[in-house]
C-alpha cells in the first residue's frame, strides 16, 4: 500500500507527473511497486476499488481531482451500490 | 513571561471562503457572525503571535515520515500552497509571518517537558487548515506559529495526549520571553467526511455533544472519546484533536462559549466557532 499512497501523493503534488500519467501511465507506474489490483484500478481511475482496498481517503480524493476526475464523479463512484450516500 | 490571552477554535472548511454562497443564508450569516465576534475579540487582545493548531492534509507531510505532533519554526509560511488552491479558496497567496523565536522556544520547552514533537524549520506550506480561519479572523500580519496534530491517518494520538499537549503548550507560552501576549487558535472539524461515500452528511448529535463538553470545561468528559465514536462523525471529526490541544491550553475547568454552530451540508461540515472564557472556572 505504501507505493500506491506514494503515487497518489506525488500525482497530487506534481502537475507535470499528473500530465505524464495521462499520456504514459505505464511509464509513470514503472517507478512504483504496485500490486496488480492496485495497478489495474489506478489505470482505470477506479477509485471505488482503491477505496475498498483500504487507501487513505484524503490521498485518494485529492489525487482524483488532480488527474481529472471531478468531485461529483469521484463520489458517484464511491457511492455506487451503497447505502448511506446522499449523492 | 507571556500571557495566554485567548483560546479560540473554528472550522476550516474550504466552503467558508471558497463557496460561501452555496450555504443556507441564515446558517451562513450565523457562522460568519461567529467568526466576526472571534475576530473582534482577537483584535481587542492584539496578540504578538497566534499559535495555530490543526491537522495538515498531506500538503507537506506524507507516510514516509508522518509526525504525530509537529512544531513549525519557520520565519514565514506560504499559503495557500498553490495558485490552484488559492483560486479554489478565493484567498490570495501570500507569506504569513512566522514567529521563529517563540516557535523554537515551544519546541525546546516541549522536549524538556517530555513531549516529542517533530521539528519543521522551513518549507511548511498552508492549505485550508490555516488559510481559511486566518482569513475570516482577519489576523493580517500577526505572526503565526503552526502546530500540527495528526488527524488524517490512523492511528492517532489519544484525546488525553492531545489535551496534555495543550497543557504543556500553555506552560511554554507562559515561559516565553520573546512575546507578551499570545492567542491559541485550533482549527478543523466538527463532523465531516472527506473522500468517503458519506461526504456531505453531518452528525449533528456528535457535534452538539462535543460543544456541550467544551462548554463544561471538564477535562475528563472532553477526553472521553474512542476512535469508534469519532469515526461515526467522519474521518474529518478526528480533527477535534486540535480542539483538544486548545482546550488543554485553556486549562482544566475553563469553560468554552459557542459563538456559532450550524450543520452545513453544502460546506460538508458541522461548522463551529468557539472561544474559551478565560479566567472563568467551572
Q: Name the average pLDDT of chain A.
A: 93
Contiguous uncertain segments of 5+ residues of chain A: none
Tell me the distance between the termini of chain B: 26 Å
> Which protein chains make the most extensive interface, counting residues with beta carbons within 8 Å of the other chain's beta carbons?
A-B, 22 and 18 residues
- Termini Cα gap of chain A: 28 Å
Strand % of chain B is 15-25%
Topology pattern of chain A, helix = H, strand = E? HHHHHHH
Briefly note the structural class of the backbone of chain A: mainly alpha
Mean pLDDT figure of chain B: 97
Helix percentage range of chain A: 55-70%
As a percent range, the share of helical residues of chain B equals 25-40%
Extended strand count of chain A = 0
Could you state the order of secondary-structure elements of chain B as H and E? EHHEEEHEHEHEHEHHHHEE
Structural write-up:
The complex is a heterodimer of chains A (87) and B (282). With 87 residues, chain A is mainly α. Helix content of chain A is 68%, strand content 0%. In chain A, α1 crosses α2. Chain A is globular and about 35 Å long. Chain B is an alpha/beta fold and 282 residues long. Chain B contains 10 helices and 10 strands. Chain B has helices at 15-18, 25-45, 83-89, 100-112, 128-136, 159-174, 204-216, 219-222, 227-231, 240-250, and strands spanning 3-10, 49-54, 69-72, 76-79, 94-97, 118-120, 144-149, 181-187, 256-264, 269-276. In chain B, the strands form 2 sheets. Chain B has an 8-stranded mixed beta sheet, sandwiched between helices. Chain B has a two-stranded antiparallel ribbon with strand order 4-5. In chain B, α4 (100-112) crosses α6. Chain B is globular. The A-B interface holds A 2, 5-6, 9, 12, 51, 56-62, 74-75, 78-79, 82, 84-87 and B 57-58, 62-64, 152-153, 193-201, 235, 265.
